[in-house]
Amino acid sequence: MEQPGEIKKVSMAVIKRLPKYYQHLGNLLRDNVERVSSQELSKILGFTASQIRQDLNNFGEFGQQGYGYNVSQLYTEISKILGLNTSHKMVIIGAGNLGQALAKYTGFGIYGFDIIAIFDTNPNLVGREIRDIPIYPVEDMEYFINENDVDIAVLTIPKDKTKKIVKAISKTCIRGIWNFTPVEIKINENIIVENVHLIDSLFTLSYHINEGMLQERLLKQKRKIFPSP
Amino acid sequence: MEQPGEIKKVSMAVIKRLPKYYQHLGNLLRDNVERVSSQELSKILGFTASQIRQDLNNFGEFGQQGYGYNVSQLYTEISKILGLNTSHKMVIIGAGNLGQALAKYTGFGIYGFDIIAIFDTNPNLVGREIRDIPIYPVEDMEYFINENDVDIAVLTIPKDKTKKIVKAISKTCIRGIWNFTPVEIKINENIIVENVHLIDSLFTLSYHINEGMLQERLLKQKRKIFPSP
DNA sequence: TAGATTGTTAATCGATTAACAATC
DNA sequence: TAGATTGTTAATCGATTAACAATC
């Protein structure tokens, strides 16, 4: 039996669904929809109504029997759960192709994620700006992060430089790392690591494309072992 | 009871672990390691030995009692399962920041994913090249895909253009879509969609950063309802 | 009030872990 | 042969779905 005042851990499966709830509620809000039931959400999101109610009840009782959920209120609650009610300072480490592309993208700012600096080792890049965001030498990184209370470091560096950078970052006040390198980062548990392993994603796609052919092959093997009469 | 010749569906959880197996086996191979046990794999990958054996047995019997797995052989098998034994033709739709960054990146080619064209509507970009990859007008997309037997379309377009592009792509011989737009793509089931929803990933990171504070707040609420004696 | 829909408990389903006979 | 380690069955754990009393 759960004790009052005890918090049960929310499963990763639930957490991964929260952004979907948030974004769809945002759409409904923009369409001036006032209320929504778990069943209506179910139809568009593709999760069962039961699951949606279970998910939300991990964080509180946001609905009302016979009415459903107030769109605006639920949207606000989920934004708080996701920490989107406060803004976050980000820095990009590595001003290569991907680092520059992320710096140029303005979509993160909409949700309060502000990129305030970029760091690189390349002297041809240091001193320049990307969309008003200055590129500083990587030696200044630790000092800058602590001085500016930076929340998130975006890692877009080559994999052989990752270990060294992670070591340096681990000594700062940084709260989270958004990791675009293929390296598995081991760091103290106070710093959250979120991985975007693009190559894994591409391999998964490749698996599914290949799946049909694979099953053919497995089937043939099995037929050899158990020939049909 | 499973019938011979019947294929049981492999769960998504297993599929998502395959790239990790593949990459670590690649490392072992490069280090000239000849054999590896499920227990040794377990230590580095962080999955249980039991799970690793279960996972691999979805696809065949690759090990040998008392010996373990032959690194080179298992690596080859998993590369076949992931479809990495054949090369794949890719096109990038949308030569914006992200599209260009992906085009410049040479890391996909190593695994046989070859970007052979980029498509865009911007007349300032059309006709140019990125790393020898030509940028064509988007009108030529369908013809090009069919003519060149393109396997994968990488979507790096603004969200309001996605629906139209997806409709056009769905008429081609394309096998998979690597979707970097925030749009949920509905398409016929023969075309596989793999999503890279960056903003979801960032929100998940934000959730975890915020988690500590969130729990404090929930705890206080509960204490009000069940005050300590 | 009657109808709708929640929050929550119980049942089911699926994935992970444990255990061990088979066998290299 | 003795020791090691697999493949696989059984047990456990956790997540999803179903059901329904509570209540707006």
If you had to describe this structure to a student in words, what would you say it looks like?
Two copies of one chain form a homodimer. Chain A has helices at 12-30, 38-45, 49-57, 71-81, 97-104, 141-148, 159-169, 198-225, and strands at residues 35-36, 63-64, 68-70, 88-93, 113-120, 129-130, 133-137, 152-155, 176-179, 192-195. By secondary structure, chain A is α/β, with parallel strands linked by helices. Chain A has three domains: 12-81, Winged helix-like DNA-binding domain superfamily/Winged helix DNA-binding domain (Arc Repressor Mutant, subunit A), CATH 1.10.10; 88-196, Rossmann fold (3-Layer(aba) Sandwich), CATH 3.40.50.720; 203-229. A seven-stranded mixed sheet of chain A has the order 6-7-5-4-8-9-10. In chain A, strand 4, helix 5 and strand 5 (113-120) form a beta-alpha-beta unit. In chain A, helix 1 (12-30) crosses helix 4 and helix 2 (38-45) packs across helix 3. The longest helix of chain A has 28 residues, at 198-225. The first copy, chain A, is globular. The model of chain A is unreliable at 1-6 (pLDDT under 50). At the A-B interface, helix 1, helix 5 and helix 8 of A face helix 1, helix 5 and helix 8 of B. Chain A binds a DNA duplex (24 and 24 nucleotides) through helix 3 and strand 2.
